[in-house]
Amino acid sequence: MSIIVEHDKRRKEILEKALDVFMDEGFEDATFQKIADRCSIFRTTLYIYFKNKKEIFNYSIKQLLAEVEEDILRIRNDTSLDSVNKITQVLFNIIDRFEANRRLLAVILDYLLHLSRSGANPETRVRRRTVRLRHILASMIIEGVKAGELTPVNIKAADDLLYGLIESAIFRLVILKRDSAGDLKKAMELAVKGWQLKDG
């Protein structure tokens, strides 16, 4: 059991130090050797944990998205909340996670710019990684409409609006280097409350 714990602890340390290398060097110039050097381990030891730098990068993204999804499902299953509060809390939670992981977001944006410069379409990669998030947001809106808590809205347009606000938060946090995206929380809350079904 302690071997697994130590293995997980070492993996987490590697991810943290790899993130530093990605931040300092950019995704393109970061190498497996530079990551091993930053971790003060041999490259052969690093291969025990990861196959290459792309796997390290992908693992970091998967870990962040898994944490976001876990939070979303917890909020979604909270029966004490109505649809407006569920959706609002989910959006706030996503912003909070992104604020806490702005370094990783910066590396992701650097990677996407690298893809774009090389002629690849970064939207395909982003869409593949975020399809579950978009689906969960859309299904929460549908649930709210079915429960009579939200007015009938165009689900795709509503989902695009919320997702666009999330993208705006990433832009503000990483590109504009704002301390927080709290101002966007107000915009998100306003949008969701606008869909709230009014009594009588």
Detailed description of the structure:
- This protein is mainly alpha-helical and 200 residues long.
- It folds into 2 domains: 51 residues, Arc Repressor Mutant, subunit A; 138 residues, Orthogonal Bundle (Tetracycline Repressor, domain 2).
- The chain is 80% helix and 0% strand.
What order do the helices and strands come in, and which of them pair?
Elements: H1 2-29, H2 32-38, H3 43-49, H4 53-76, H5 83-100, H6 102-117, H7 122-146, H8 155-175, H9 182-194
Helix pairs in contact: 1-2, 1-6, 4-5, 4-7, 5-7, 5-8, 5-9, 6-8, 7-8, 8-9
At a glance:
The chain is mostly helical.
Features:
200 residues; mainly alpha; Arc Repressor Mutant, subunit A; Tetracycline Repressor, domain 2; 2 domains; 9 helices; 80% helix; elongated
Structural domain count: 2
* Content-based structural category: mainly alpha
Total helix count?
9
- Please state the average pLDDT score: 88
CATH H-level superfamily of the largest domain? Tetracycline Repressor, domain 2
Count of individual beta strands: 0
